[in-house]
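Cross-check.
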Amino acid sequence: MPAQITLKWKKDTTFETELNGHPITIDTSVENGGNDEGPRPKALMLVALAGCTGMDVAPLFRKMRVRFDSLSIHVAAETSDGIPMVYTSFLVTYHVTANPDDQARIVKAVRLSQEKYCGVTLMMKKIAPVSWQIFLNNTLLNLNDQNK
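Predicted model, tokenized:
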């Protein structure tokens, strides 16, 4: 079954849709002629990227018996200078608070998400480079030292 949504115009640059029974409103800033009634559409791509990989990694941690207290995912994207402004690269940063003994399993889970499971990452790689890094207990891991 193909994926589909219907986006309905409300006023000015405000639109609404419903995804899986949840309403979503998108808009632009007042400075750009909008009403600031919702997030910007392009930024939702970053939410999708973080959400997709997060929904891989958290269950993989549980399956691999990684003892973690917190997981947050930050996505930064560079944009082009011209119009239309498009994303030119993505950096996904995982912040994990966990037992340091689980480092190899944490890296394996993230790598599986980035290279095999996360459909959003795989789609984004067709747009621009996607790189990633992991901070374990506030320390940046050297991924070159990890087994693949």
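Residues 84 and 124 are 17 Å apart (CA to CA). The mean pLDDT is 95. Passed to J.P. for a second look.
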